[in-house]
Specification:
This protein is of the alpha+beta class. About 45% of the residues lie in helices and about 15% in strands. A five-stranded antiparallel beta sheet has the order 2-3-1-11-12, with helices on both faces. A three-stranded antiparallel beta sheet has the order 6-8-7, with no helix packed on it. It is flat and about 105 Å long. It starts with 6 loop residues before the first helix and ends in a 16-residue tail after the last helix.
Length: about 325
């Protein structure tokens, strides 16, 4: 029989394993492991086998190994993991899609009874209905102010009752009642607290962002940068098109108000001298959109028979041509 490894040998083996995983994987999920049993953890390991590895250990050992590996490799990005190692946590090293791995981890939750002194992670509501308990058990309900009645020799709860609020500690009476009713109100499993990806650390909520949501947030950011740039007259790529357009409008306004002119300003001045041309342009645009091709063709035929006059065809221009 081989001798059991000493504490020093266990630390060396753990350091070696953690350093190897840090070298091999660039994505890590930091998970909270309170109230997770060994059998449940084994099921999680089996479910993630293939592209992910679950590593548990004492926080001091993990921090020590990470610092040693950072000093050895000169890569200090691993040090971003150290502030995340607080409480009962573990590491899931993965090469898969972070969102898919996070969802797979969430599947392995098991129901748990409400034990005395436990902080309730959710509100616990006792539903109305027949409890199956005999009338001698009414004392539990009276202590907790739960309205009941005797129906066919058993205790029946009349209305739903909020027995425990989220964040409150479970008392002995509440725990005993839930045990008698066979209610396991809580469920526990590994909970993703933080995500490490190639040196960057972010919350798991980021994994829920869709491509459309990212585009929307990016557009909002660009709009804010544009507004700020225009307000302080600071040129940026986002504000440049608006600045050019505004500058063109200013130059055009100066040309219209003075003798100075240029080709685009000449067209605008011509329109301003003869406002009726605005009406001609306005009528021509809806006609083109309505698909009135036959009517337009007929007008062209009539024009051919009329004496040649100054044409307004070249007036259908854009101010930015």
């Amino acid at each position: 029989m081989a001798p059991k490894p000493t504490k020093a040998e266990k630390k060396i083996a753990y350091d070696s394993k953690l350093c190897q995983l840090l070298e091999e994987y660039s994505q890590i999920l930091v998970v909270h492991a309170d109230n997770v049993g060994s059998n449940q953890l084994q099921s999680i390991r089996s479910g993630l086998r293939g592209d992910s590895v679950v590593l548990m250990g004492k926080n001091t050992m993990m921090k020590r190994s990470i610092r040693m590996h950072a000093e050895k490799t000169g890569n200090n990005v691993y040090l971003n993991l150290i502030p995340l190692l607080v409480g009962n946590v573990g590491l899931i090293f993965t090469k898969g899609d972070l969102k898919e791995v996070s969802e797979e981890v969430a599947k392995y939750k098991v129901g748990a009874p409400a034990r005395v002194g436990l902080v309730a992670p959710i509100d616990v509501v006792v539903p109305p209905g027949n409890t199956g308990l005999d009338p001698s058990q009414t004392s539990f309900f009276q202590v907790l102010n739960i309205p009941t009645k005797i129906n066919k020799g058993t205790v029946e709860i009349i209305t739903p009752v909020e027995l425990i609020k989220k964040g409150d500690k479970v008392g002995s009476s509440e725990a005993a009642l839930l045990a008698k009713l066979g209610i396991r109100p809580f469920s526990y499993g590994l909970v993703v607290l933080s995500v490490y990806d190639n040196g960057s650390v972010f919350t798991p909520e980021v994994l829920d962002l869709t491509e459309d949501a990212l585009i929307e947030k990016f557009a909002i950011g660009v709009s804010m940068v544009t507004s700020l740039s225009l307000a302080i007259s600071y040129p940026t790529l986002a504000a440049a098109p608006h600045m050019f357009v505004n500058a063109y409008k200013n130059v055009l306004a100066v040309a219209v108000a003075t003798e100075y002119s240029f080709p685009e300003a000449d067209k605008v001045k011509e329109f301003l001298k003869d406002p009726s041309k605005f009406a001609v342009a306005a009528v021509a645009a809806p006609a083109a959109d309505s698909g009135a091709a036959p009517a337009a063709a007929a007008k062209e035929e009539e024009k051919k028979d009329e004496p040649a006059e100054e044409s307004d065809d070249d007036m259908g221009f854009s101010l930015f041509d």
